Amino acid sequence: MRLILRQTLVLAGAGIVIGLAGAAGVTQLLTSMLFGVKATDSLTYTAVVALLVVAALVASYIPARRAMRVDPMIALRYE
């Protein structure tokens, strides 16, 4: 379970870093599209990052938990 969740966090972390770098790169465009929020609002960035991490963990936890319930001998015989 830890292995799968760790791999998920690594991939989600890489995506978040790339996304934040891209968002920082297009700050000028974001400024013209946002109303009432600065393009560099740290609360918004933090909320989005937290939401993405939670979504990634839930999306990987459910299949990992289901895979842990399978008996290894039955899985090997099936293959």
Could you characterize the architecture of this molecule?
The longest helix has 27 residues, at 42-68. This protein is mostly helical and 79 residues long. It has one domain (2-78). It has helices spanning 2-25, 27-33, 42-68, 72-78.
Can you give me a brief rundown of this structure?
The chain is mainly alpha-helical and 79 residues long. It has helices at 2-25, 27-33, 42-68, 72-78.
What is the secondary structure topology, with strand pairs?
Blueprint lengths: L1 H24 L1 H7 L8 H27 L3 H7 L1
Helix pairs in contact: 1-3
Query: How would you spell out the order of helices and strands?
Result: HHHH
| Rg over C-alpha atoms, rounded to the nearest angstrom | 19 Å
Q: Helicity level, as a percent range?
A: over 70%
Tell me, what's the shape? elongated
**DSSP strand tally:** 0
Mean pLDDT: 86
Q: In what range is the share of β-strand residues?
A: under 5%
- Helix segment tally: 4
Structural class: mainly alpha
Let me know the largest β-sheet: none
Features:
single chain, mainly alpha
